[in-house]
Amino acid sequence: MIRRLSLSLCLLLGSIGMSISAHADARIEELSWMDRNHMHQQVESIETLVQMRLGTRLRGDASDLTTLQTIVDRGMIPRDDKLRLQALGAVLGNVMEAEVAQLKWKIYEDDKGRSRALCVEGTKECLFPVTMLSRRIEVGLKPDVQKVYNDAMKLMEPFLPKMPYTGTSYR
């Protein structure tokens, strides 16, 4: 119990640091054709799973968070299936991009490597949704998908443009 609690705390704190980044030496680039194709294949693998096992479809909007939660709760993807677990993150990222117009899929490259990230346009402020769910599931946790989404959006809120007169973000 204590081990699991410690692991959960480490993951939570680690994911906050790993979810948003603004390194001066980072390069942000557009997705290549290969990157887009890989993400499309990942999302299609989840689409197929959803159709076959749940009898529904991904919609590309916030309702997909409930579908992702069902997949997590039912353990429909084994903990050791890293590619499909990361595919859940691609679907999560697509929801974020659909819900917040200022977030766009990009390639984020720094001294740690090359990653697909959702970045606020014109900044180096990025989220890394591909691993937001997979890292938790791989260690045996069942993440609350809505909470992961809400926490990520809260992290990005200070970097999103504000609406005139109200000062609130466009989210």
Describe the model:
The chain has 171 residues and is of the alpha+beta class. The protein has one domain (2-158): Four Helix Bundle (Hemerythrin (Met), subunit A). Helix content is 50%, strand content 12%. It is built from six helices and four strands, in the order αβαααβββαα. It has helices at 2-19, 33-54, 64-73, 82-99, 134-138, 145-156, and strands at residues 27-29, 103-110, 113-120, 126-127. It has a four-stranded antiparallel sheet with strand order 1-2-3-4. β2 (103-110) and β3 form a beta hairpin.
Termini separation comes to: 38 Å
What's the total count of β strands? 4
CATH architecture assignment? Up-down Bundle
Low-confidence stretches: 1-22
What portion of the residues fall into strands of 2 or more residues?
5-15%
Number of domains: 1
Walk across the major sheet and give the strand order. 1-2-3-4
Radius of gyration in whole Å, from Cα? 16 Å
Counting helices, strands and paired strands, the structural category is alpha+beta
Helix content: 40-55%
How many DSSP H or I helices?
Answer: 6
Q: What does the average pLDDT come to? A: 88
- Main beta-sheet annotation: 4 strands, antiparallel
Might you state the CATH topology name? Four Helix Bundle (Hemerythrin (Met), subunit A)
What descriptive keywords fit this protein?
alpha+beta; 50% helix; 12% strand; Four Helix Bundle (Hemerythrin (Met), subunit A); disordered N terminus; four-stranded antiparallel beta sheet; 4 strands; 171 residues
